[in-house]
Write a structure and sequence with these properties.
alpha/beta, Cytosolic phospholipase A2 catalytic domain, globular, Patatin, lipid degradation, plant defense, monoacylglycerol lipase activity, PNPLA_dom
């Protein structure tokens, strides 16, 4: 908590002294080819259908402005994604043989509907190992992404993982891959690693080479243990470009994969009596995992919201998240047709909900007066993104 608080303070000071227009909401008139654009996608397993639905909508609006070949990767300087969000990031940024986007945003949900039931099938799982053996997940990711390496993505990406041997986060990014061969892993390996949720899928081991030919080993699990919501990771990664003066404004779209409806599950008088096993599993719940997951996601959202609020640039940050999932839709691995259709429906309904911002005191999302619906905001953002791209092409 101290680390993230210090980061926000540093960002605030730096923004205040280096961004010439940081205290103004971004408008078409103030866009002059110097806006850095960021897209961030949370983890959440099969619930990736929710951001997949929203991304398909955003891309459709970009296509209305710039033609049917418009793709999201062409509009964002950086796309970050954790776990299932890392897989979505790869789908959006993987190149074809002509170095054009291999997939459209509408292909994201096609992927989940076609392959989700096989990824989350219990047929081959071992009673003594992870819930799922991960064989189909690895197979289909390798089929989709082939030999594409991190340095080939169509825009800069950053995908968090966690090295269980070193006990530290490992961030894979396009810029690092271009600078160091040891970070230029196969995009497929990085996707398998960032989706290797503890207890759910096996950890992933792979190797790369240093410049001198020596081998580098990775022993990785789900990036969500470090950053379920990778928005802050993305801002920190791109911040160097702002400090160098290449950009003067920041535009961020952050997409959640939904979370369970808030319930007062635990209280101090109860948990103070718990044994270690209760913290791991209690009456069908997983308290420790619930706490870490919620803390990781909410802390990032609170601090990033605070950052933009302090800069008077709230409209430059759009967070779309449903925090009221109930029943089957709150599951990360229930890949039945009915549940996947329900998740897609949640994504569509989320588009029509009011733009909301996290309440720093309660952590709850509350509607923001005067900003319309999420679809209204995405339409506005699509115009800004389109204008920024055109200005850059003209220059």
């Amino acid at each position: 908590m101290k680390r993230t608080g210090f980061l926000v303070l540093t960002l605030l000071i730096s923004f205040a002294t280096t961004l010439e227009c940081a205290n103004k909401p971004l408008t078409t008139q103030t866009t002059q080819g110097r806006t850095v654009t960021v897209l961030s996608i949370d983890g959440g397993g099969i619930r990736g259908i929710i951001p997949g639905t929203i991304l398909a909508f955003l891309e459709s609006k970009l296509q209305e402005l710039d033609g049917p070949n418009a793709r999201i990767a062409q509009y964002f300087d950086l796309i970050s994604g954790t776990s299932t969000g890392g897989l979505v990031t790869a789908i959006l940024t993987a190149p074809d043989e002509d170095n054009q986007p291999l997939f459209a945003a509408k292909d994201i949900n096609k992927f989940y509907f076609e392959h989700g039931p096989k990824i989350f099938a219990l047929d081959n799982a071992s009673a003594m190992g992870p819930k799922y053996d991960g064989k189909y997940l690895r197979l289909i990711i390798r089929e989709l992404l082939g030999n594409i390496t991190m340095n080939q993505t169509l825009t800069d990406v950053i995908i968090p993982t966690f090295d269980i041997k070193l006990l530290q986060p490992i961030m894979f990014s396009t810029s690092d891959a271009k600078a160091r061969s040891s970070k230029n892993a196969l995009l497929a390996d990085v996707c398998v690693a960032t989706t290797a949720a503890p207890t759910g899928f096996p950890a992933h081991y792979f190797e790369t080479k240093y410049e001198d030919g020596k081998t580098r080993n990775f022993n990785l699990i789900d990036g969500g243990v470090a950053a379920t919501n990778p928005t802050q990771v993305a801002i920190t990664h791109i911040f160097n470009k702002i400090l160098k003066g290449k950009f003067t404004k920041l535009l961020v779209v952050s997409l959640g994969a939904g979370k369970a409806k808030f319930q007062e599950k635990y209280n101090a008088s109860v948990v103070s009596q718990w044994s270690p096993i209760n913290w791991i599993f209690d009456k069908g719940a997983t308290p420790l995992i619930d706490v870490y997951s919620a803390a990781s996601t909410d802390m990032v959202d609170i601090e990033v919201s605070s950052l933009f609020e302090a800069l008077g640039a709230e409209k430059n940050y759009l967070r779309i998240q449903d925090d009221n999932l109930i029943g089957n839709t709150s599951s990360t691995d229930l890949a039945t047709t009915a549940n996947m259709e329900a998740l897609a429906n949640i994504g569509n309904k989320l588009l029509e909900k009011s733009v909301a911002r996290v309440n720093i005191e309660t952590g709850a999302f509350e509607p923001v007066a005067g900003q319309g619906t999420n679809s209204d905001a995405l339409i506005r953002f699509s115009k800004l993104l389109s204008d920024e791209k055109k200005i850059r092409l003209a220059n």
